[in-house]
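Lecture 7 notes: from sequence to structure.

We start with a single chain of 255 residues. Read the sequence below before looking at the structure.
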Amino acid sequence: MACWQNPRTGKEPPKANPRRRADPRHPAPGLPQPAATHKIIGNVCAVTERPLAHNLQLARGPLKQIIAVYPGSFDPVTNGHLDLIERGSKMFHQLIVGILRNREKQPLFSVAERRKMLEEMVQPFKNVRVDTFDGMMVDYAMSVHATAVLRGIRAISDYEYEFQMAMMNRKLQPALETIFMMPSVRYSFLSSRLVREIAQAGGSLKELVPDIVEERLRQKFDPAARFEHGGAARAGRQHRKQPVTKIVTTGKKAK
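Now the structure, written as tokens:
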């Protein structure tokens, strides 16, 4: 039986009447039809639509490669940051983690320290790189040919601030889109400020930050850790630099 025959009667379907009024639900012959393939299943002729991505690629050509920027201070880097980096790496052709150099604030870690830690932690993601910038974020995004900005939202309070920033960025650069991502549930409460406070109070940072960050925080706030990793060496250098006092005796006995 031919694919276009009725499976019950074995007859061909009636031809369309050219004088009949066009039905928007059924395009007239000759118009572009959705890409489809025909498949015979038993005595039934089945029409299977091709994937939507395939149709879009045929209509618009290859999908555009998107470069996104994930800006922030990352002081310090938390597991929440890494969660967004990992998920963002699966969405964009390239993801640039941009560390903001803010000279008005006194950060816990220097820009060089934060960059070194981030570069070590993003090594598993081949399409992620770390960079630093200062000034306006939209100008930096245009300089690296980015068309999207990745931002994380943890609560309603974050949304109010991020919404204002997104609208201002759109005003300054309409070609730049902002993409909001919700963090994983286990990191929805996590922030760099809370991590700093916990580390300063000597609390546990387990499952809050990567191991390398936990070690650096311990060195920052724990005097014993600082001495263990560098204090002894510094003390030795200071001891060697102390001048040697020579004692000169005249040979006279004290009266």
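DSSP finds eight helices and seven strands in the chain. Keep this in mind for problem set 3.
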